[in-house]
Amino acid sequence: MTKKILILPGDGIGQEVTASAVEVLDFIVEKFNLQFSINSMEVGGTAYDEFGSPIPSNVLNAAKEADAVLFGAVGGPKWDDLGWDDRPENALLTLRKELNLFANLRPAFLFDELSGASPLKENVIKGLDILIVRELTGGIYFGEPRGVVEDQKPNYAFNTMIYNEDEIRRIAKIAFESAQKRNGRLCSVEKANVLEVSKFWRSIVTEMSSDYPDVELSHQLADNTAMQLVLDPNQFDVIVASNLFGDILSDIAATLTGSIGMLPSASLDSAFKGMYEPCHGSAPDIAGKDIANPIAMISSLSMALRYSLNEEDISDKIDLAIKKFVEQGYRTIDIATEDNYLKTSAVSKKIIEIIDNE
Ligand code: IPM
Ligand code: MG
Questions:
Q1: Model-level pTM?
Q2: CATH code linked to domain 1-128+263-358
Q3: First-to-final CA distance of the chain
Q4: Which ligand is nearest to the CA of 101?
Q5: Residue pLDDT, tens place only, 232-289
Q6: Any idea which residues carry the catalytic annotation?
Q7: Quick check: CB of 92 below 6 Å from ligand 1?
Q8: Exposed/middle/buried for 127, CB within 10 Å: 0-12, 13-18, 19+?
């Protein structure tokens, strides 16, 4: 059956890195004779400028129908003063919620050749390979009630951190199963020393662990995990966390690799349809210069092939090509130590060449 792919480049470097990934996609479609229907639409600030909404309803509908959405990045100073509904970031949260993308997989890994790019010492960081499984459609991001009260003294604002047991179970299941496929260790992160919702989270995850005797489960408080990620990141295999804690910890983990421009992510629903985006943002300061690193986006395409498009072998080929690219000494500006780096558009050509020769 033809699989549907929707391309949403978005804003800033989202446009360039997506164009690069689409070159790779077009190449593999042709080379491996894949039956994909590929459609591209605007989202974020770019869509707001053109259609008056960061996520027009036809875009949302197309995303709902797609098997995989490749999402570049959204946002930029141009749209910073808009109200929440019009802001580019709203497109992201609407897509996550409306598409039920509750499972956010954020790998953080380090190529040996790039360990010098990490802010940590080589002996601490070498071999880093972590998967953060972040809950993405619940918790304090979406909890009700929420609001601002401006007719009282003092005025106040509030949000609600809430999880029901089903929400915890479905994300923990993904995390346990991911650990089974990796190195068998899962660390569940919360603030059970302070928050009821965290204590509840811990009890559900603990209860589930008897179904996964092959997974070694540990629990950590989120502030400690922030510290442990910097002190001894290799203690972790899979980390599972709520929406807010996962947001924060995944930025720390990504930074450890020294190259956020290399890291992909997947956001999945229960049927493994998903949205795939680089961990980096729209980087308005370097947009339009053809210097952004498109590897995170190309790697996100690889995740899409693996999880949503049933093309694991081709995903392996792309991953191998990225590995060879790095091993052969090719660099983009963000990870280059000298002046000889490849431009965005040259990276996809190189990756294509490597896949073609594999
Ligand atoms: C992320 C981002 C988003 C989030 C923002 C842009 C709304 O930080 O994907 O991690 O907080 O989830
Ligand atoms: Mg974030």
A1: 0.94
A2: 3.40.718.10
A3: 27
A4: 1
A5: 999 999 999 999 999 999 999 999 998 889 999 999 999 999 999 999 899 999 999 9
A6: 141, 191, 223, 247, 251
A7: yes
A8: exposed
